[in-house]
Amino acid sequence: MTTFVILPPRELVEHAVHGFVEALLPGMVIPDGLWERIVEEVLSEAKVYSLHREDLPETDDLAGALADGFGAEAGDRVVELALPRGREAGPVRAWTLPGVSAAASGR
Questions:
Q1: For residue 89, which phi and psi values (nearest 5 degrees)?
Q2: How many C-alpha atoms does 33 have within 13 Å on its Cβ side?
Q3: Which residues, 6 or more positions from 93, have their beta carbon under 8 angstroms from its beta carbon?
Q4: Beta 92-96 vs 48-52: how paired, if at all?
Q5: Contact 5/48 with Cβ under 8 angstroms?
């Protein structure tokens, strides 16, 4: 079983990480690509693939888009993350891929 983690758009993640580092370490220079390294380190577990929202097509069939574009299969886990709101964690929606769309099953 594979887990697909769907992150907010890159620009929003970068902004959130920069805001956090600036609050934690004011005046420090934030290295380029810091947010990418943080995401990579946190999600370094085997069988976890991260995608940003903008990597997916605009569709109501997210399961089909994951199957068509990224090889997701029935039983794979999907975790959709949203950015934190204030000091509260952002909403998380986790679900299991029930099957594939008609388009994906024709592959």
A1: -65, 150
A2: 3
A3: 79, 80
A4: unpaired
A5: yes
Q: How many CB atoms lie within 10 A of CB 89?
A: 11
Total residues found in the chain within this entry: 107
In 1-107, which ranges are continuous DSSP H helix?
10-24, 34-42, 62-70, 102-105
pTM of the model: 0.77
List pLDDT tens digits, range 3-35.
999 999 999 888 888 988 999 999 999 999 998
Strand (E) or helix (H) holding 7: strand 3-7
> In sequence order, what are the beta bridge partners of 6?
51, 80
Distance CA 29, CA 8 (A): 24
pLDDT tens, residue by residue, 28-64: 999 999 989 988 888 887 679 999 989 999 998 999 9
* Residue recorded with tokens 């952002």: 90
Backbone φ and ψ of 103, nearest 5°:
-65, -40
